[in-house]
Amino acid sequence: MNWPVIAGVAGVAALIGFGAAKMAPSNAPSAPSAAPAAVTQPVAAEAAGEVKIPAEYLKAAGITVEGVTSGDVSSEILAPATVAAAPGGEAVLVARANGTVQRVNKRVGDTVRAGEVLAVLDSLDAASMAAERRTAQAKLELARQTFARESSLFQQGVTPRQDMENAKANLDVADAEARRAAAVARAAHVSDKGDGMAVVSPISGKIAAQNATLGAYVSPNDELFRVNAPGAVQVEASVTSTEAGRIQVGDEATIVLSTGALVPATVRSVAPTVSGNSRAGTVVLAPKGLAATLVIGEGVQVRLHASGSKAAAGLLIPEEAVQTIDGRDVLFVRTDQGFRAQPVLVGTRSGGVAQIVSGVKAGDRVATRNAFLVKAEAKKGGDE
Known about the structure:
alpha+beta, six-stranded antiparallel β-barrel, single chain, 24 strands
């Protein structure tokens, strides 16, 4: 808005009105009305003013635009949350034995398939496991031959039943030992030749972390890789015990990212206990869409629409959307080219949510997150 031009127009109009009043007769009825019309013109221009903000700036500044919703302040809960991996959505690959990293096949950011070898360890423990597997297999083969011979001799009446039963027991023991040795080697991903121990990904996804360095010595349970499956995430929100009692499985929620993006979600579960240190309970949310935009470990904010609170419906908006200009509460309503400052009457405020009594209607899109930046642009335009 060009305030110097408006002020000049108002001044010229005022002077014209003043001159007309001096030159007109004292009984002329139209002369006194010229000056008030010129004074009210800037007020009308200000009420219809608009802060023009490009859409590119909204994204760069993280300004979120949301619709005014119907609800009640007591049913809205604003809580901090963290993006976490869903069950089965993250795999931590560790070393199964002592050894050195012989080969590294993948690095951070690479896409891997389930069962793919990410690295190979050169390990004496792997050699021992392979030797035990071969020894157990050889003993099993000998026990099978012994049992076959004793069974044949018993049928011919050459040897007693006791010899055949002893051979059968030895065969069972050898078979169990061979199965154990094979299972140990298979769990450690020891090669058939026993010359290495493979690090294998159990899921498909992307490598999020890598600690395996070529030639480095590793010990059992040392983390080598971390693989995340795409989209397999959940959001864990921290709420008080009172708030947890009002939240039910299936309640709607909104995840607010640091970029201002909004992701709809539903409540998947509510922890029945609270933490001993923070005295906070955990609410697990399942994103409905845009799960790929959620980064594991990222801090977000969630708005929970608790169905456990029964109250009259009203108009709700995040409290940070309410800004103050010249002592009045306003909301910045989205227009085609920017925002318009709309005076509103605010009712109660609770849990980061404000109740709007009048000024807007449900469905109006207003600036919420980082709305103070729109206010700064509006004040800058007013000063100019």
